[in-house]
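I had to read the description of the data format several times before I understood it. In essence, backbone conformation is discretised, so a fold becomes a row of integers matching the chain in length. I therefore recommend that a typical entry be quoted early in the introduction. For illustration, here is how one protein appears when written out as sequence plus structure tokens.

***
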Amino acid sequence: MPWPSRKRDKGAVADKKEPDAKIAKTEEETSDKEEEKSAKPPAGSSKSGWKNWKKAKESESGGEESKITYCHWLLKSEPESRLEKGVDVKFSVDDLKAQPNQTTCWDGVRNYQARNFLRAMKLGQQAFFYHSNCKEPGIVAIVKIVKEAYPDHTQFDQKDPHYDSTSRKENPKWSMVDVQFVRMTKRFIPLSEIKAHHLAHKADGGPLKDMMLFTRQRLSIQPLTKEQFDFVLSLEEEKPH
């Protein structure tokens, strides 16, 4: 690819709203330096929105509860320039759209749990493209998996900021997938709005109550259930708060 390691977990930094997060290189320390702690939910409650959405879904499915499985994803990437070991790790949705066939490898992930999520991705599954470590983080687009996990070439490149001297070509530690742009969301869905629903769902049992964006916010690769994905996607039809 013409750029090195734009998407990653190793050395991840916090969004600007969380200045106390630390840069780290191990699984325990790894941080996308997410901004959830400081993102303020908009005024009002999302309970009615969740109940109306649930009623519509139950009507469509005959009242059956959807099976809890992870079949969608949320991928974080930084839309603003930031140097890591002298390399700019910026990669926005516009950068993705500018690539040949609007496709890129999702390289540079250096967290074991995030890597395992990459390895669990299946061809054709969809994911939210999430802008992180910026003035207003949130979901901007939808992408799909077009190539399942294979060895991440950056782990063997000594000039790459995510080079791993302990990884061996006969037994690579790190993996990546290829993703392709599908479409922009109908509107930007900010973290603050998603958090408002998450807090309401914690109280009334909605689908976002255990969303990893808030329970494991430091991970740059996060799984979503179908119910979580569908609910967040439904927000693009609503007027922003």
